[in-house]
Design a protein that fits this description.
The chain is an alpha/beta fold. Helices cover 26% and strands 23% of the residues. The strands form four sheets. The chain has a seven-stranded parallel beta sheet. The two termini are 14 Å apart.
Length: 340
Amino acid sequence: MNAPLRLRRDADALVANWRALARMSGRAACGAAIKADGYGLGAAWAAAALAAAGCRDFFVATWTEAVALAPLGLPGLAVLHGVRDEDLDVALSGAATPVLNTAMQVARWKAAGGGACHVMLDTGMNRLGLGEGDLASGVLDGLTIDVLMSHLASADEDSPKNSDQRGRFVAMAEGVAASRLSLANSAGIALGADYPFDLTRPGLALYGGTPRPELAGIIAQVAFPQAQVLQRRHVPAGETVGYNATWTAPADTDVAILNIGYADGYWRGFSGRGQAFHDGEALPVVGRVSMDLTAIDVTGRAIAEGDWLDIDYDLPRAAAASGMSQYELLTGLGGRFDRT
């Protein structure tokens, strides 16, 4: 069956974004974060397009995600959350390379006879990663480490924490034998030539997000949601639309009811602030976005039941309108879309 929701994904834009980020990475290789089902757009879809373009390093969060991608035979697939006891069998099968985050994970990997791995260092984010005390204890002795990495906490801001983390990373890496170093995410790439090291790990910017102003005009939109009109109705002046009557028609108004709502990731924050497009003209959301439906002012437009409207999903603009982060807007896109 054809759903009344469509999510058009532009593979050419995805690849163009990766190539732009690769150029900005300088001599460093440019990988791709495809966790959270490719930031909501489809990990297999994204990985296949990027691998064909030359990407050779891919990152997911969990082993479940890695196993789902096994049919693609991706080179350089890594699991960011490391290895639990429950993951050992699949991790030892070679389905992907673990990123070890704790002393317990390192001990588990060693005891199991695991081979080459990646290691995450904590340089001040206090989320995942080994600390300076772990390194001083010799916990990494005997490991074959491909990528030694850390993660920037504030790369989307002009924060002194960025250079502080970089400095800590360099100091901690001096005592570790590793083939490659990696620090920069999408925003980190835009911080300049001091941050790429040997491998960058963009995520958001691949999919059309711009976490820093340096990426504006370089990164192209990838995700284009469309919703079908379920009903066109005439709302007389003074009548209200939607839950809690938050919008009152200032004049006689024609309204299209679209088959999209917060269950699809079109959040209530778009109420009275979002917009759709018809023939390039912006049409405002009126009233409150509900679970499955959204109302759009279509006065004077030749829009009928069964027509399709493009939802404004330019990520920086949509984030400003909704109050949601660009990350949440992408990963929150629901499962009711026909992805095309």
